[in-house]
Amino acid sequence: MRISVQQERFDLGAESDGFARGATDMGAVVTFTGVVRDRPGGGLQAMEIEHYPGMTEKAIRSIAQEAQTRWRLGDVLVIHRYGYLVPGERIMMVATAAPHRKDAFE
């Protein structure tokens, strides 16, 4: 399991590839990417996300651990950004690996 709360942009392809490469005993790898969404009709200049170091990572890790218990997940990756973000930028990524796709998707 890897949890990263960071200000820097991340390379979706490199992160996905690295995660999948490490999941050789899994039959499914699923990824989700969240992006900054503009308001209907436009007008959003940016959003700023703040966090409490230590607390944020602990909360995300707890959610990921609960998911591993609830579904048969072999591995989990969560990247969540903070700071000044404009429409279209990636906010977060979640990747799951499981022996079967149903668990990875759920």
Describe this structure in words.
There is one protein chain. The protein has 106 residues and is an alpha+beta fold. Helix content is 29%, strand content 33%. The chain has helices at residues 12-21, 55-70, 101-105, and strands at residues 2-6, 28-35, 47-49, 75-81, 83-85, 90-98. The strands form 2 sheets. A 4-stranded mixed beta sheet has the order 1-4-6-2, with helices on both faces. The chain is globular and about 45 Å long. It starts with a strand and ends with a helix. The model has no long low-confidence stretch (mean pLDDT 94).
List the helices and strands and how they pair.
Elements: E1 2-6, H1 12-21, E2 28-35, E3 47-49, H2 55-70, E4 75-81, E5 83-85, E6 90-98, H3 101-105
Parallel strand pairs: 1-4
Antiparallel strand pairs: 2-6, 3-5, 4-6
Could you provide a short overview of the structure?
With 106 residues, the protein is of the alpha+beta class. It has three helices and six strands.
